[in-house]
Amino acid sequence: MTHKIRPRHPEKVKNPISPIKKKPNWIRSKLINSREFFLTKTVVNKSNLVTVCQEANCPNITECWSKRHATFMIMGDTCTRACAFCDVKTGKPEKLDPYEDIKIANAVNKLSLKHVVITSVDRDDLIDGGSNHFKKVIETTRRKNPNTTIEVLTPDFLRKGDSYKKILEANPDVFNHNIETVPRLYVKVRPGARYFASLELLKKAKENNKKIFTKSGIMVGLGEEHDEIIQVMDDLRSANVDFLTIGQYLQPSVKHHPLERYYHPDEFKELELISKSKGFLLVSSSPLTRSSYHADEDFAKLQKNRLNIN
Fold first, then answer.
1. Domains of the chain: which residue ranges?
2. Half-sphere exposure of residue 3, counting CA atoms within 13 Å on the CB side?
3. pLDDT of residue 64
4. On the CB side of 215, how many CA atoms lie within 13 Å of its CA?
């Protein structure tokens, strides 16, 4: 049976302190291999590295770390923005670690990663938004691990001009920047960002490097309507985005943006079918889908799908 996406009722979302709804039985994390999980944890901790898996309390951490897959978060653990959906702490960040590129490269080597995802906090305090640091990390990681493909999940570099081009100069295999939600909700959910600036960033990334795979993701359950989701899909395709991820928003605490509702797995399947009809090269849509969830496997699918088209 198809589960229709219910319209949002604005009058229900008034109290800024919102109780967290109980998770349905289809949202469960998995521990696949405890030995590999603790190996990943040991490498991350001994290298004194930050991961978005830990900082954002990702529900997939046990499954991913059991496969030696960790998403490294560079430029510290403190973000200069306060997005209402995010569990990463906000405040005044510390200075950049000049040896972070070496630490990341060595950790990737120790974990024998075939594909690595590197993301960061927003660093609006830096003139270039941290793009040169991003570039340095990519280049050092590639020199140490020439057979490892690299995926980046970047900030929007809002009001930082062409800073993003520094990252493209390092030639990552995947350039990801999440659109996160529908434009109507930006003021409440992502107040420090601008919807069309994010779209423009993705469009320019593809224009500057047509060989690179571009990727973006949205969360559902924040109060968006069905037609708004479809419009975001169309906007991302207009920006020539190759890969779309759609996942369930999980409210981190009572002080974060309230969860409107949980989507049923059948609804995610419906959104996946609609997305594919729009022409995306790849779509990942499920309750536990996150930006870097199964990123290594998805990269292989992207390559295969591109070859099939060409």
1. 30-309
2. 11
3. 80
4. 26
Which structure tokens are listed for 310? 């060409």
Contact 205, 166 (CB under 8 A): no
- Using CA atoms, how far apart are residues 124 and 143, in angstroms rounded to an integer? 28
DSSP state of 51: B
Q: What is the CATH number of domain 30-309?
A: 3.20.20.70
Task: Determine contact, residues 153/159, Cβ cutoff 8 Å.
Answer: no
Dump strand ranges (E) for the chain. Answer: 71-74, 115-120, 149-153, 174-176, 213-220, 243-248, 282-285
What Rg value do the Cα atoms of the chain yield, rounded?
19
Please list the alpha-helical segments (H only) found in the chain: 34-46, 52-55, 61-65, 100-110, 131-144, 164-169, 186-189, 195-208, 226-238, 265-278, 295-309
CB 134 within 8 A of CB 166: yes
Which pLDDT score is estimated for 188? Answer: 96
Q: Name every residue whose Cβ is closer than 8 Å to that of residue 91 and which is 6 or more positions away in sequence.
A: 78, 79
Helix axes 34-46, 100-110, angle to 10 degrees: 160
Cβ(278)–Cβ(242) below 8 Å: no
pLDDT at 268: 98
The confidence score (pLDDT) of residue 16 equals 53
pLDDT along the chain (310 residues), means of 10: 47 54 82 76 85 71 77 94 93 96 95 93 97 98 97 96 96 97 97 97 96 97 98 98 97 94 97 98 94 88 88
pLDDT at 13: 42
Angle at the Cα of 81 from the Cα atoms of 78 and 87, rounded to 5 degrees: 60
- Would strands 115-120 and 243-248 be described as parallel, antiparallel, or unpaired? unpaired
DSSP state of 224: -
